[in-house]
Amino acid sequence: xxxxxxIACCKPLAAPTLSDPARVKILNLIARSDEPACVCELIPAVxxxxxxxxHHLKKLTEAGLLAREQRGTWAFYSVDPEAAxxxxxxxxxxxxxx
Length: 98
Prior knowledge:
Largest sheet: 3 strands, antiparallel
Structural class: alpha+beta
Number of domains: 1
CATH architecture: Orthogonal Bundle
CATH topology: Arc Repressor Mutant, subunit A
Number of helices: 4
Strand content: 5-15%
Radius of gyration: 14 Å
Low-confidence stretches: none
Strand order of the largest sheet: 1-3-2
Distance between the termini: 7 Å
Mean pLDDT: 82
Order of helices and strands: HEHHEEH
């Protein structure tokens, strides 16, 4: 059995990266979206100010959970494919196949 790399998102929920409920909500909204999400679309969905949403997006990006794409003056966010693969591999461990 090979060891999987530890990623920032897998710290205990008390860790500062994902512990804020707004970050969990933002991550869920982006994960369920078919297209990358703009900060302007997330503001009304989470009910927070633009600077606060941008702060949470920055923390999620730094943790390696989100990918950021600049389009003109707007930034669009999607779940980082590598992080999604690592998370899927961790979830698969519960299946007992490894």
